[in-house]
Amino acid sequence: MIEAEGLTKRYGTKLAVDHVSFRVEPGQVTGFLGPNGAGKSTTMRMIVGLDRPTAGHVEVNGKPYAQHHAPMHEVGSLLEAKAVHTGRNARNHLRALAATHGLPGKRVDEVIEMTGLAAVAKKRVGGFSLGMGQRLGIAVAMLGDPRTLILDEPVNGLDPEGVKWVRTMVRYLADEGRTVFLSSHLMSEMAITADQLIVIGRGRIITSGPVQEVIDRTSGTSVTVRSPQAAQLAERLAGEDVAITVIEPGHLAVRGLEAAQVGEVAAREGLVLHELTPVRASLEEAFMTLTADDVEFHSASGSPHASHATEGAQA
Ligand SMILES: Nc1ncnc2c1ncn2[C@@H]1O[C@H](COP(=O)(O)OP(=O)(O)OP(=O)(O)O)[C@@H](O)[C@H]1O
Predict the structure, then answer these.
(1) Residues 144 and 76: beta-carbon distance below 8 Å
(2) What's the CATH code of the domain at 184?
């Protein structure tokens, strides 16, 4: 269980995490979803005591991380998916860590087995691929058999097989009753992997809840319309809650109205339709909509707002 209350981190003038409160329950996979720079890593670092909160507090399994006598048994974390620069082989690297923390040597073999590292356990860690490095990072996190796991972007840079492995692994660990908290900037990945979502943007929690509920709340539908009289139709459809994007001349995307409503307006006005198709927004579009105002940097060529509307547009 992780419980954060008013958790805040300021770096100079930058408010990286802004009074966030949330609870991550055991027995479930909870996804921490947000665009780059949203504050995910900073929040996770505060949970494991690597960053000191400017305000607020956070507890893991009922206590601040630093107050646990055997922290590796309480919390395992993968915070930077970087290769470990050491000349040691994987097994010796894990053995050294186990010895430092008073953990039994046989646990090293267990985590090597669990993370599929057996074939490379005698290889130098410095030469590991990103995927193997990631598995090793998870092996390190699992070493103390922790009740809570915190994984920052664990699937970043992994091949499809590695992504699937992480997904299966976190599911298994949650089913064992552990608390699993993992971050990602990919809605599609979280939709498959997580049970619960906490969505963050610009240091603030935007929404949270069961994955399907968050998706349903955000992924509105739009209607694709093709008409040789698109300009007139756009004028007739325009309204306060209606957003119309001109995809190209004669081709509109309409948000805020059902296909039937668009068809009725067209019929009433005597305007010809060549196509009228309801389109469910993809997960990534839903995520963009959710965080559009909360991304730190918009790309110059097309901001996340680009899929939004030009109200009352002329075709
Ligand atoms: N040590 C630091 N000093 C100054 N600013 C920082 C520091 N660490 C993070 N930040 C800033 O705080 C904000 C949140 O960063 P953070 O790394 O927590 O976001 P994130 O959601 O994990 O993004 P990413 O996926 O890109 O790592 C960003 O604006 C970042 O530039």
Answers:
(1) yes
(2) 3.40.50.300
User: What are 229's strand-pairing partners?
Assistant: none
**Atom of ligand 1 minimally distant from the CA of 38:** 21
Distances (CA, A) of 150 to 47, 79, 311: 9, 8, 43
Pick the atom of ligand 1 nearest to 203's CA.
14
Which neighbouring-strand residues pair with 23?
A: 3
Mapping DSSP to helix (H, G, I), strand (E, B) and coil, where does residue 200 land?
Answer: strand
The ipTM assigned to this model is 0.95
For ligand 1, the distance from its centroid to the CA atom of residue 14, given in whole angstroms, is 9
- Please tell me if the CB atom of residue 14 comes closer than 6 angstroms to any atom of ligand 1: yes
Range of the domain at 137: 2-213
Closest residue CA from atom 12 of ligand 1:
16
Torsion of CA 83, 78, 38, 198, to 10 degrees: 150
pLDDT in tens, 101-159: 888 889 999 999 988 888 888 888 888 888 888 889 999 999 999 999 999 999 887 88
Q: How far, in Å, CA of 151 to CA of 194, rounded?
A: 13
- Nearest alpha carbon, ligand 1 atom 29: 37
Query: For residues 177 and 27, is the Cβ–Cβ distance under 8 A?
Result: yes
Nearest CA, atom 7, ligand 1 = 11
From 163, 188, 213, give the residue that closes a domain: 213
User: How many separate domains does the chain show?
Assistant: 2
pLDDT in tens, 168-179: 999 999 999 999
d(CA 260, CA 277): 10
pTM, to two decimals:
0.78
Residues near 168 by Cβ (< 8 Å), separated by ≥ 6? Answer: none
> Is 181 domain-assigned?
yes
